[in-house]
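Regression test case RT-17, inverse folding.

Input:
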């Protein structure tokens, strides 16, 4: 039985709604004591209402005479500063003993470790006012990993004791400790801690943390490319956040759902309607009054979605919507991802100064395995060399990053015209995509090999070509918007500009010119999925890319006779009689993952 709760607090904790603790009679009752104010601020921080929590803690701190309570409030205040640097100076350091010690204050010690670790991650890669000095070293990253390990072990020991009061004192850590492990690419550890946190919360009757644990576990599964497992948890988190009116976290969970969508299917959830809702919430800007890191993570994830469908310019505009890269409140791996996106756009634009600046950002980040991978890819792009699949990618255990690197290997080989390397890269990518059941990206991989019609390529941009092709196939503007993750008005603009550029006056005339995008079925429909084995799927993908039997054999390390057997099996399963039919049908039928 927990001690010292105000009326209604226990019932709210048992429900699935953390925001219920931050408003109404419960919140009013909590403000009548210093310890109640601390708990209320803790609920507010976790709910994403960082500013009122900061103001509340700042106001109560000077009134405290109890040393232990004052320490607890100071650490809670600093945790907020770690996620929102605009609140002031971060004063917790490793140069003095961290707060905590006896069992009763273990949560404060863990919270201090979490605050220091997250502060270092958030500030990593942000250029100081006086300019860069020495770059961080491997020792800095080792120290960072030590912080994560101390926090994780201390937290697990706290949970093992099973004291309901202690677990309530650590309610925010039930989410932040597994998320800290995930931020260090320690996915297995993150899942183990989240599972322990869920069991402890259930024993302590803290159901309000449920959507948050669904969220962090779903994000961990996304990192592992366990798409089906992630989708169910993210959907459950969405329901919990929506039911409780927690729109900041709803927005973040929805953006993760969109990332999953571009990997596993051709259209966004709800036909793209929720993309408009996300855009509306971002434009309203209410999230800037809470935890900006939530909104900035949404901007990053939506940029991933746009990059995945070939809209690099849209991704760049999105990530810069709230200022430059230094203004974004992100952990170092997310900042490195944004820097890499902007770097690639700068190189494509010939902006050498901006490319050099962004490369300096990553060079002045702690050399985590993820950052080292990004540095290598940026260097290859700048020098004109080939992107390599560094062994460290496999060591990370990060399925999303393995997949992303293999995609870059493929696109790099296609861009350089290295056909043999491209076919081998396609086979590797397709194998991983099939295992991870991310069919939509398998389709896009094959489309890299489509040979564009020269005349149309000179006349239309890539995005105009995509929109014009779907319009020529009879798709409506709304259907095109859902398929390409665009707004309806944006699609209207692309159609109009394509007609002007091609010298056409009617939408129907688009069907009379050659455009360099495969249309598939003219009516935009697809057949029932035909499930193939992994090897059959690879062979089909390579056929669609235009590979000969000899090319396929060399790419997959099998004989031409074996290739013939796989093609025969594909024809039997699909009812398709020719290689041409297989190639034409790949993106509607054969790009589905094999059933397990």
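Golden output:
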């Amino acid at each position: 039985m927990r001690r010292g709760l105000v009326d209604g607090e226990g019932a709210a904790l048992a429900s699935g709604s953390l925001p219920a603790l931050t408003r109404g009679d419960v919140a009013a009752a909590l403000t009548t004591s210093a310890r109640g104010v601390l708990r209320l601020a803790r609920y507010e921080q976790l709910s994403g209402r960082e500013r009122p929590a900061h103001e509340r803690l700042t106001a109560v701190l000077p009134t405290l005479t109890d040393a232990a309570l004052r320490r607890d409030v100071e650490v809670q205040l600093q945790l907020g500063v770690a996620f929102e640097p605009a609140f002031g100076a971060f004063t917790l350091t490793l140069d003095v003993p961290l707060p905590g010690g006896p069992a009763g204050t273990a949560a404060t010690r863990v919270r201090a470790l979490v605050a220091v670790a997250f502060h270092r991650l958030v500030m990593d890669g942000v250029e100081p006012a006086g300019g860069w000095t020495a770059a961080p070293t491997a020792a800095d990253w080792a120290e960072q990993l030590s912080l994560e390990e101390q926090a994780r072990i201390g937290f697990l020991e706290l949970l093992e004791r099973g004291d309901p009061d202690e677990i309530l004192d650590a309610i925010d850590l039930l989410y932040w400790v597994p998320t800290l492990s995930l931020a260090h690419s320690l996915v297995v550890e993150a899942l183990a801690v989240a599972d322990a946190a869920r069991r402890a919360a259930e024993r302590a009757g803290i159901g309000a943390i449920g959507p948050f644990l669904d969220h962090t576990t779903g994000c961990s599964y996304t990192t592992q490319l366990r798409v089906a497992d992630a989708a169910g948890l993210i959907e459950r988190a969405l329901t919990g956040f929506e039911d409780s009116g927690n729109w900041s976290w709803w927005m973040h969970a929805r953006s993760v759902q969109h990332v999953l969508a571009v990997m596993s299917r051709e259209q966004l959830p709800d036909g793209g309607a929720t993309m408009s809702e996300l855009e509306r919430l971002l434009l309203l800007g209410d999230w800037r009054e809470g935890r900006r890191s939530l909104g900035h993570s949404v901007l990053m994830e939506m940029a991933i979605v746009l990059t995945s469908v070939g809209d690099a310019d849209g991704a760049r505009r999105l990530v810069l919507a709230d200022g430059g890269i230094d203004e974004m409140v992100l952990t170092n791996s997310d900042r490195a991802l944004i820097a890499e996106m902007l770097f690639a756009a700068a190189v494509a634009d010939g902006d050498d100064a901006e490319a050099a600046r962004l490369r300096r950002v990553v060079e002045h980040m702690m050399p985590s395995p993820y950052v080292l991978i990004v540095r290598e890819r940026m260097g290859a792009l700048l020098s004109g060399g080939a992107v390599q699949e560094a062994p460290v990618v496999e060591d990370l255990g990060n399925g999303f990053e393995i997949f992303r690197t293999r995609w870059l290997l493929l696109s790099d080989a296609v861009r350089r015209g290295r056909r043999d390397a491209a076919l081998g890269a396609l086979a590797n990518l397709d194998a991983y995509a099939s295992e991870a059941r991310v069919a939509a990206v398998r389709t896009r991989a094959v489309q890299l090999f489509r040979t564009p019609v020269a005349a149309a390529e000179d006349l239309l941009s890539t995005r105009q070509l995509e929109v014009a092709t779907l319009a020529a196939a009879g798709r409506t503007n709304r259907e095109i918007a859902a398929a390409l993750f665009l707004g309806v008005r944006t699609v209207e603009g692309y159609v109009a500009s394509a007609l002007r550029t091609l010298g056409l006056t009617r939408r129907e005339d688009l069907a009379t010119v050659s455009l360099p995008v495969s249309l598939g079925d003219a009516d935009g429909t697809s057949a029932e999925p035909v499930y193939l084995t992994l090897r059959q799927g690879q062979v089909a993908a390579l056929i669609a890319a235009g590979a000969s039997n000899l090319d396929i054999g060399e790419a997959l390390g099998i004989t031409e006779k074996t290739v013939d057997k796989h093609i025969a099996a594909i024809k039997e399963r699909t009812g398709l009689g020719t290689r041409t039919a297989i190639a034409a049908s790949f993106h509607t039928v054969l790009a589905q993952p094999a059933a397990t």
